Predict the structure.
Amino acid sequence: MHPAPSVIFFSVFSGVGFGLLTFLGFGVPHVFGWNAFVFFVIAYLCAVGGLVASTFHLGHPERALKAFTQWRSSWLSREGWCAVLALCFMAIYGIGLVFFDVRWGFFGVIGAVFSIATVYTTSMIYTQLESVPRWHSPGTPAMFLSFSVAAGALLAGEIHAAMALIAIAALLQIALWVVGDGALEASGTSLATATGLGQNGSVRAFEPPHTGTNYLLKEFAFVVGRKHSLKLRVISIVLFAVIPIALLIAPFSHWLVLLAVISHVAGALASRWLFFAEAEHVVGLYYGKR
Amino acid sequence: MTQLPQTTARKLGLVIDLDTCVGCHACVISCKGWNTENYGAPLSDTDPYGADPSGTFLNRVHSYEVQPEQGTAQLIHFPKSCLHCEDAPCVTVCPTGASYKRVEDGIVLVNESDCIGCGLCAWACPYGAREMDAVEKVMKKCTLCVDRIYNENLPEVDREPACVRTCPSNARHFGDFADPDSNVSKLVAERGGIDLMPEQGTKPVNKYLPPRPKDTLSEGAGDIDILAPYLEPVAQEAKGFLGWLDKTLEKL
């Protein structure tokens, strides 16, 4: 799959933002006034910034409001609803904390539930696609949720929780890579089933339908950088898990936590780039590619 | 509405005969022609005469080589367009309701004025049947020539998809799969029509007829054609003037 920068930024930063909002909604950290204001600004910048980035890959962003109509069947539509509801409930909750020094727990808990639901619906957009066997697994939402909650804990300043959650995210990520490498074979889809010619012998793509490239090849048969995938996996794990955990073990300092956050987000971006670049769409089989 | 209908009154679709397709790409061209000039946004080309040409097509013809365990390889031309699946994954993922499957005839269509160009339907389709138009920024797909098959301004013979109408080797057939007596249902029954990627659970309406086994070439020198005795040369020796000339020149 083509790793579009807008979608990578969107999914990482909205994950971070909604992860932090989830913690804030449950009253962690217990902050009021200006302190709360700073936390909410960071969370909203990430969450809203991510959502805005996601509209950059649309062909017709001016029609984006229509995407709220199909929540009965479409995970993308459900994601839109969850995000808007989460931001609305958390805004009311945040106003209480910042301006009135009161914690309207009802709004916080509802907002937190919709925040985490946003991350889940984002992951389901990818998980639902049977055409991309690497994504079509319960491991995908588990990985998205663990990254989001880990980043939320880190930004909320919950050091011990953050260390544990980052370690869980790293383990899930490694498991997903290992399982994902065999997902296309395990799906049973091959050039033989794609063409129905398997009974007659071994099938080989002989001639593509066109001499140049096309939308399908650009969007689905992205192979640039796959040969570096092992190196990138190591770089990603070191950045999002090893370095942040090491910095958090060291005596507490705001600067070290800031460094840990930057390293974690950089590693998460690398991981998300791999999530797209390594994913094989079965349409590639028709072109003899994967 | 992007929820799929429980059933459709008719199931219009294509049968594609891999035995007779000669890979001429006439269906590709007639499809592009009709669908650029008629319903919906035109199918654009980018850099068509330059070094890196690319364009939107609703139908493409691949070619595959099938190598049996023994014997010579067979080349199969393989046209591919939207299969108008009963359980179309492209429809349910659409967030705006632009993608839909018609209750009356099962055709999967895109309402281009509702399409936001997110591309998720093309991601969901395992067959590569949907292509985002690079100029119009909306999703394009086979309409089964919905603007031909019901078009009373056309002569009746032309009321079928452009690809079917143009195919010079009759490798494409159009009809209603819900009717067991239709031409397409009979073809599928007689020739063992198959689904592409059945394991994806899309229940495609379009069916493919597998290539028939080819005649085997006789092996070994002893085998000669039964007509061979009748094909022996009649004139063993040249006669007449040319015969005399041949002999005379031979002697020189």
